[in-house]
Amino acid sequence: MQLERLSAVELGKLVNKKEVSAVEVIKYFADRIKKRNGSINAFTYTKFDEAISEAEALDKKLARGESVGPLAGVPVALKDFLPSKKGWTNSHGGVEALIMEDAEDSVFYRAARQAGAIAVGKTNAPAFAFRGTTDNKLYGPTSTPFKVGFNSGGSSGGSAAAVADGLILIGEGSDGGGSIRIPSAWCGCFGFKASIGTIPSVNRPDGWSASHPYCFNGAITKTVEDSAVMLNYMAGYDPRDPHSIDWGKRDFTELMMRSIENMRIGYTDDFGIFDVDKEVKEIVRQAAGKFREAGVAVERAEFHLPRSQREYAEFWCESICFDTATDMELWKQNGLDLVRNHGTQLTREFIYWNARLLQGGVMGIRAMNERRTEILDAFAEAFGKYDLILSPVTVCPPVRNAADGDTKGPLVMNGRRMEPLIGFAETFFANFTGNPAASVPAGLTKEGLPVGLQIIGRKFRDGDVLAAARAYEEINPWSYDIPLGRM
After folding, report:
1. Alpha-carbon distance values, 459 to 178, 240, 336, 388 (Å)
2. Reported pTM
3. CA pair distance 276, 428, nearest whole angstrom
4. How confident is the model at residue 313 (pLDDT cuts 50, 70, 90)?
5. For the chain, how far is it from start to end, CA to CA, in angstroms?
6. How far apart are CA 125 and CA 155, in angstroms?
7. Which residues on neighbouring strands pair with residue 193, listed in sequence order?
């Protein structure tokens, strides 16, 4: 049996029925990781012995007739960026000077464990998740399994590549500007970013630290149903999160099955400001047109943003440094001057934008809030007309990996200069506003590289996005043929 071709829900059912043991599952995927990970560089490290021990304990529970959850024995991976499993380590995305022991479990890991899944290792990410590609000075770049040598997208690129290549079935993601959706698009996966307040995010000592822009926990999966199941376990009210909302009990697997026939859908290539690769634009337009097969009209949506994509992308680069600049100042006070003593482990762009934020002062914060308000107003206008907005996830297909640990997006598109860290992604607007958004596979370029369609919903209408993604999945099921030839 080719377990990697199953969805997480399908595999969980087999384990729960004792048709395959959790130990057999973990050993199967451990062997697959050992054989295939070397070429795509998805994992930074693995914990197979620990995972097998957990699988043995799970099999014993099943033998006693105990309930272990719908994802029983399903292998998952954690993101090597911030703490995600107590006792493991994280490197803040490939920064050797910052390899630290995880002091706590992440929302994703707690949910996955409760659902019966088993973590097998940690996956690659860029330093501080500060870009839409996955590459760093310590571990190097991660490739999309569709074509080795082309980037997986970021910042959750290791997780997406591992899911796409069938090394695991669910990967941990976090999304501060597209870090779930971008790699999902470039690896042919499904990636969902919830509304602000849906999945709790507890940060201390600064409870508001993940708000500049809003940063989200989430999962990268093969199917919409797998994500809905994970969301059932991740979502919930937590009073320690200032944005958390108490919706009561919601079943996202039921919400995803709702009809979308009465929904109003708008489509934009570019939000009025992005330059988009011609082939990507055509692939995504055709994908958006599939919704007509579900009985839904898709209209051209107009956006009236007053600045260029480069200005807004640079705004993201500066504002996302609220957390990192603060952390580096605190570390400096405790004797760790990261830039002075370990600057070679960081990229030039990361150092620049953190310094620029610190130099901006209070009026710089005011200017950033005004730009964020422009995006908020544009979204408010659009969602006054539509329930969903469709767009490309990125303006280009996966880019080639660099050789220096500093893979970036394109510098020029259609003759105009681009901001290369996030400016190639049409994703970060939904982080500034808090709207739910997903990436579904739209198709492949002539070169065989994946392209993603973004679905953005009205704020707090997560079920609408899942229902639209599910309807699209039924009309246009994406292939999970695993690229071969790298064993």
Report:
1. 16, 21, 40, 10
2. 0.97
3. 16
4. very high
5. 18
6. 5
7. 437
Q: pLDDT, tens digit, for every residue of 98-120?
A: 999 999 999 999 999 999 999 99
Instruction: Please report, for residues 50, 100, 111, 334, 349, the alpha-carbon distance to residue 158 in angstroms, rounded to integers and kept in the order given.
Output: 20, 19, 20, 31, 21
| Spatial contact of 211 and 243, defined as CB atoms under 8 Å apart | yes
Distance CA 423, CA 410 (A): 9
Taking the C-alpha atoms of residue 228 and residue 238, their distance in angstroms, rounded to an integer, is 20
Distance CA 294, CA 384 (A): 22
Separation CA 392–CA 426 (nearest Å):
7
* Unique residue bearing structure tokens 């464990």: 113
Give the C-alpha separation, 199 to 278, whole Å.
Answer: 36
pLDDT of residue 485: 44
Q: Provide the CB-side half-sphere exposure for 183 (13 A, CA).
A: 47
What is the sign, positive or negative, of the torsion defined by CA atoms of 297, 175, 307, 400?
negative
Q: Are the CB atoms for 195 and 433 separated by under 8 Å?
A: no
* Predicted confidence (pLDDT) per residue in 345-355, tens digit: 999 999 999 99
What is the three-class DSSP state of 194? coil
Report d(CA 141, CA 281) in Å as an integer.
Answer: 26
How sure is the predictor about 82, in pLDDT bands with cuts at 50, 70 and 90?
confident
d(CA 176, CA 211): 9
In the three-class reduction of DSSP (H, G, I as helix; E, B as strand; rest coil), residue 413 is classed as strand
Q: Please write the tens of the pLDDT for every residue from 233-253.
A: 999 999 999 999 999 999 999
pLDDT of residue 183 exceeding 90: yes
**Secondary structure of 121-161 as H, E, C letters:** EEECCCHHHCCCCCCCCCCCCCECCCCCCEECCCCCHHHHH
Tokens 């708008």, residue located: 266
